[in-house]
């Protein structure tokens, strides 16, 4: 019915509001790949449930350690959180999944290390699954709850040659387990112990367990809350929404209706730097000469799209 010229959105009335839960925020990989024999993972992956329960119990316990820890450990844990988040937002998401800007080798190495700190599947897998997520949520042919196997199957049909052509991506994938051990657990734990005499117990629980658990939950919010709560000023026909709360936690990734409408935009938002630390970071990297070619939707494009498909809320 609605005619569309830019081809970025399919439009046959009904939209599916649920998303492939594993696509945007895959959980640690092994737990999701339990269907090697070809069975569909429509059942509960108990190993995953147990691991996640233990992790969250550890995170709750960590909260009680906060008053006992050195203030530098608090600051360090927060810095680790920011680096973790950038590894996903500026790295796997805006750089590798969407190619919304270009990054030189030193920056790609930093983002790959930060991405291992995030422990949300390696860059290749994350980006491939995320491209599937966009494909699913921007067309009508989406099964309500595809298994991780479906996501992988569909991922095989996408062009991921650009990812495999990046030696940083290939290297991180090859040494993923080691890099996670070092970046997600060892470095966050050892720095406070070595530099200001924090106990290994405190630094393990605060800088590794609590920081990791919070970052996982924030990323899940992008896939859940940002697809359920909020307005849709750019395209009312798709499920992703603008969600301030998620934007705040996910350092700029909650402008989700905008992002799914203009996925190539490096800022994932109409408002540039506002509420968007990831955009600030990419701009800083450009200023330092480590990044370039930032893609952006023009104000005219955004305005025209709002009038054509927006819900009139902004
Ligand atoms: Zn995206
Ligand atoms: Zn999404």
TrEMBL record:
Ranges for domain Fatty acid desaturase come to 74-263
Q: What are the record's GO terms for cellular component?
A: endoplasmic reticulum membrane
Q: Which GO terms describe its molecular function?
A: iron ion binding; stearoyl-CoA 9-desaturase activity
Regions of compositional bias (Polar residues) in chain numbering: 1-15
UniProt cofactor(s): Fe(2+)
GO BP annotations of the record are: unsaturated fatty acid biosynthetic process
**Does the entry feature the keyword Lipid metabolism, yes or no?**
yes
Q: What is the superkingdom listed in this entry's lineage?
A: Eukaryota
- From the UniProt entry, list the residue stretches annotated as the region Disordered: 1-35
Its membrane topology: Multi-pass membrane protein
The protein's matches in InterPro entries, at most eight in alphabetical order, are given as: Acyl-CoA_DS, FA_desaturase_dom, FADS-1_CS
Q: Which positions, given as ranges, span the membrane?
A: 49-69, 75-96, 180-197
Protein's cellular compartments: Membrane
Keywords, A to Z? Fatty acid biosynthesis, Fatty acid metabolism, Iron, Lipid biosynthesis, Lipid metabolism, Membrane, Metal-binding, Oxidoreductase, Transmembrane, Transmembrane helix
Transmembrane as a keyword of this entry, yes or no, is: yes
Question: PANTHER family, per this entry?
Answer: ACYL-COA DESATURASE, STEAROYL-COA DESATURASE 5
The record comments on the domains as follows: The histidine box domains are involved in binding the catalytic metal ions.
Indicate the family of this protein: Belongs to the fatty acid desaturase type 1 family.
- This protein is called Fatty acid desaturase domain-containing protein
Q: Which organism is it from?
A: Albula goreensis
């Amino acid at each position: 019915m609605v005619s569309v010229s830019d081809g970025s959105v399919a439009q046959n009335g009904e939209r599916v509001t649920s998303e492939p839960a594993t696509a945007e925020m895959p959980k640690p990989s092994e737990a999701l790949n339990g269907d090697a024999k070809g069975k569909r993972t429509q059942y509960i992956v108990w190993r995953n449930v147990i691991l996640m329960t233990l992790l969250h119990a550890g995170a709750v316990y960590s909260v009680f350690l906060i008053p006992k820890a050195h203030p530098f450990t608090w600051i360090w844990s927060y810095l680790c959180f920011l680096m973790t988040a950038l590894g996903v937002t500026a790295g796997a998401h805006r750089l590798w999944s969407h190619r919304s800007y270009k990054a030189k080798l030193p920056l790609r190495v930093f983002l790959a290390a930060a991405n291992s700190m995030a422990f949300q599947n390696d860059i290749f897998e994350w980006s491939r699954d995320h491209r599937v997520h966009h494909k699913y949520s921007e067309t009508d042919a989406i099964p309500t709850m595809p298994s991780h196997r479906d996501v992988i199957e569909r991922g095989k049909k996408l062009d991921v040659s650009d990812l495999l052509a990046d030696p940083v991506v290939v290297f991180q994938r090859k040494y993923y387990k080691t890099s996670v051990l070092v970046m997600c657990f060892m470095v966050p734990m050892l720095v406070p112990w070595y530099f200001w005499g924090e106990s290994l117990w405190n630094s393990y629980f605060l800088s590794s367990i609590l920081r990791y658990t919070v970052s996982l939950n924030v990323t899940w919010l992008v896939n859940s809350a940002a697809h359920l709560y909020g307005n849709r000023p750019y395209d009312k026909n798709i499920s992703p929404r603008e969600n301030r709360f998620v934007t705040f936690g996910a350092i700029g990734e909650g402008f989700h209706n905008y992002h799914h409408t203009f996925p190539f935009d490096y800022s994932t938002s109409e408002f540039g730097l506002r509420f968007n630390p990831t955009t600030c970071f990419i701009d800083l990297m450009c200023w330092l000469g480590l990044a370039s070619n930032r893609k952006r939707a023009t104000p005219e494009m955004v305005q025209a799209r709002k009038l054509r498909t927006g819900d009139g809320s902004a």
